[in-house]
């Protein structure tokens, strides 16, 4: 992909090839930190009452005889003796940075709010699946994921092998393949496979290829209440999973393109958080909207870009500042702090309403707390 394209051009080109530029940037000629060491990036902390635990799952037997890496994020009982988890492991982060034109050591992975292997909090919690964008990784919406977990959800994130930066427990690094096409239907197949493994875990079976799950995790999964969300291509995969799998009761797309065009009716709750791929500008999104026959909602934040509903809206400005480069064409005009609050509030309100039947008012219409968020008719 050529340097110098506009951000929207990058998004459109990526959709046409079902790939995307990692970090949403054009080549930066191996830009390196202007200081004495790698950029120290930070993530905002979640607002919920529960500490967060996380564990990874190595899953064999995925569609097309692939292996997958997934992560489970959950409300934890006690985190005092458990280390905080990194946003990404070192090797896939280096590969991600290089693929985007940065030096491999341009940044170190930020710490998340989650603690590796902490025991799960007693009580069954709703399960939310997450699918990442093209040529990306399962950590790209960690702000949303850890927010949900801190409010009592179990969230399962998946690296889509052949279209992800990831690492297996034996140290094998995987990066997106240029030879193996991965469309939204492939992502959807992965999610349904992982969901089956989550149901195995809830039944007391261990789906991991080599490790035991943290204490209490099997008993924390309420597989009668399942939702899903995804960003970009993962948003389209969310729609496809819901059309194919009645176990998923509610779906949320973060600026998904809905390509190939979806022409099947869906009668369960679905919410669109659009930015660049809007109903007004993308016929495929408008067509999908017309087939939503159940509860539906479309919100859009002023100044939002394709990256604005995931971690990149927060992390890219930090990286750009450390490298001494402008971020004008890399993220939206929305302030990172405001983007964080939107990412934390709206997905939580959606899943609270449709998986827990908690009737808050945030989704009823425009809120004075979020004046930049419009409700599109």
UniProtKB/TrEMBL annotation:
Residues 1-31 form the signal peptide. It comes from the Bacteria. SUPFAM superfamilies: alpha/beta-Hydrolases. PROSITE patterns: TAT. GO terms for biological process: lipid catabolic process. Gene3D superfamilies: alpha/beta hydrolase. It holds the Pfam family PAF-AH_p_II. InterPro entries: AB_hydrolase_fold (IPR029058), TAT_signal (IPR006311). Keywords: Hydrolase, Lipid degradation, Lipid metabolism, Signal. One of its GO terms (molecular function) is 1-alkyl-2-acetylglycerophosphocholine esterase activity. Coiled coil: none annotated. Transmembrane segments: none annotated. This is Esterase. It comes from Virgisporangium aurantiacum.
């Amino acid at each position: 992909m050529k340097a110098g394209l506009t951000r929207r051009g990058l998004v459109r080109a990526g959709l046409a090839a079902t790939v995307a530029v990692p970090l949403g940037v054009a080549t930066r000629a191996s830009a390196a930190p202007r200081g004495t060491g790698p950029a120290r990036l930070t993530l905002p902390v979640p607002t919920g009452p529960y500490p967060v635990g996380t564990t990874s799952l190595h899953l064999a037997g995925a569609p097309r005889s692939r292996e997958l890496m997934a992560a489970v994020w959950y409300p934890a009982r006690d985190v005092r003796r458990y280390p905080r988890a990194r946003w990404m492991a070192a090797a896939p982060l280096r590969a991600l940075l290089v693929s985007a034109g940065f030096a491999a050591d341009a940044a170190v992975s930020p710490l998340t709010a989650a603690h590796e292997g902490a025991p799960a909090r007693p009580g069954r919690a709703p399960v939310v699946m997450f699918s990442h964008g093209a040529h990306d990784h399962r950590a790209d919406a960690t702000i949303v994921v850890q927010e949900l977990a801190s409010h009592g959800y179990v969230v399962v994130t998946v690296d889509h092998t052949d279209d992800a930066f990831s690492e297996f427990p034996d140290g094998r690094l995987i990066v997106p393949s240029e030879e193996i096409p991965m469309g939204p239907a492939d992502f959807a197949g992965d999610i349904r496979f992982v969901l089956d493994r989550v149901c195995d875990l809830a039944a007391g079976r261990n789906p991991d290829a080599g490790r035991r799950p943290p204490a209490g995790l099997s008993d924390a999964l309420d597989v009668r209440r399942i939702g899903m969300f995804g960003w970009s291509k993962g948003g389209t995969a969310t729609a496809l999973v819901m059309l194919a799998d009645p176990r998923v009761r509610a779906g949320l797309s973060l600026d998904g393109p809905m390509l190939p065009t979806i022409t099947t009716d869906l009668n369960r709750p679905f919410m669109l958080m659009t930015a660049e791929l809007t109903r007004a500008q993308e016929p495929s999104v408008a067509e999908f909207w017309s087939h939503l026959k159940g509860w539906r909602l479309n919100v859009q934040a002023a100044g939002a870009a394709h990256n604005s509903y995931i971690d990149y809206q927060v992390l890219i400005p930090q990286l750009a500042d450390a490298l001494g480069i402008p971020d004008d064409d890399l993220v939206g005009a929305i302030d990172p702090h405001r983007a964080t609050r939107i990412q934390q509030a709206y997905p939580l309100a959606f899943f609270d309403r449709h998986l827990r039947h908690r009737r808050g008012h945030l989704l009823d219409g425009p809120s004075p707390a979020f004046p930049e968020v419009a409700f599109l008719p």
